[in-house]
């Protein structure tokens, strides 16, 4: 038997499987019941036109809590995993290098825009596309640009850890308040709903989104510092 026969047989079997999957696919002609319910209830019950934010921060709050916990565990585990070890077990000294003029100039002009845009995405997550996860990641990208332009810039990891932990605790507190005063964990309706489309609306969703933004930005900042060192 040729040495290529097992590979060809595997490719043929995969082709049969994917052909059946593709052949059985039927393009839906409308939203399914659960999706249609989310689309209807997000603006009606949560006063937010951003259905995705309504799902993540209210209807699937436990899922969001789990995702945040996973991100925290990743940031915490990178410390010992990326600990630099040199000869004789000594930590090698980090020697930063200067960035080029283009990177340095780009940092001066782009960094304020990145940080401002990240804050905008976080604060308007209940009104338009975006939210805490996305805005926090954008802010962290600004931190990455800062470290690329100036590798020796000190990051206060202790302060970032305090901000991350505090945001996580307040996130759970808001979830519990939703259980006590509304319909369940992270139910944002324990605060005034406001009018659909208004900046001050959607109950506690803007607060939850802001806490997520702080938590994600702080955790990613710690991750970047781990890689930098």
UniProtKB/TrEMBL annotation:
Where is the protein found, in the record's own terms? Cell membrane
Entry GO CC? plasma membrane
The residues covered by the Na+/H+ antiporter MnhB subunit-related protein domain are: 103-219
Keyword annotations from UniProtKB, A to Z: Cell membrane, Membrane, Transmembrane, Transmembrane helix
Note the coiled coil stretches, chain numbering. none
In terms of domain of life, where is this protein from?
A: Bacteria
- The family this protein is said to belong to: Belongs to the CPA3 antiporters (TC 2.A.63) subunit B family.
The protein's name is: Multicomponent Na+:H+ antiporter subunit B
Q: Which organism is it from?
A: Dichotomicrobium thermohalophilum
């Amino acid at each position: 038997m040729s040495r290529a026969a097992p590979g060809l047989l595997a490719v043929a079997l995969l082709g049969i499987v994917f052909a059946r999957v593709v052949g059985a696919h039927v393009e839906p002609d409308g939203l399914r019941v659960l999706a249609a319910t989310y689309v209807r209830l997000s603006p009606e019950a949560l006063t937010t036109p951003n259905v995705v934010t309504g799902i993540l921060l209210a209807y699937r709050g436990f899922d969001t809590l789990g995702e945040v916990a996973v991100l925290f565990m990743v940031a915490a585990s990178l410390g010992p995993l990326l600990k630099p070890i040199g000869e004789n077990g000594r930590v090698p000294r980090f020697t930063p290098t200067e960035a080029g003029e283009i990177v340095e100039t780009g940092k001066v002009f782009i960094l304020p825009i990145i940080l401002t845009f990240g804050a905008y995405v976080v604060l308007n997550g209940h009104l338009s596309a975006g939210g805490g996860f996305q805005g926090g990641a954008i802010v962290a990208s600004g931190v990455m640009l800062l470290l690329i332009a100036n590798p020796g810039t000190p990051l206060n990891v202790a302060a970032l850890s305090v901000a991350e932990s505090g945001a996580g605790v307040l996130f759970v507190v808001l979830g519990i308040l939703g259980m006590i005063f509304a319909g369940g964990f992270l139910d944002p309706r324990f605060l005034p709903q406001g009018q659909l489309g208004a900046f001050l609306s959607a109950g506690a969703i803007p607060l939850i989104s802001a806490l997520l933004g702080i938590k994600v930005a702080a955790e990613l900042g710690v991750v970047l510092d781990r890689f930098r060192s």
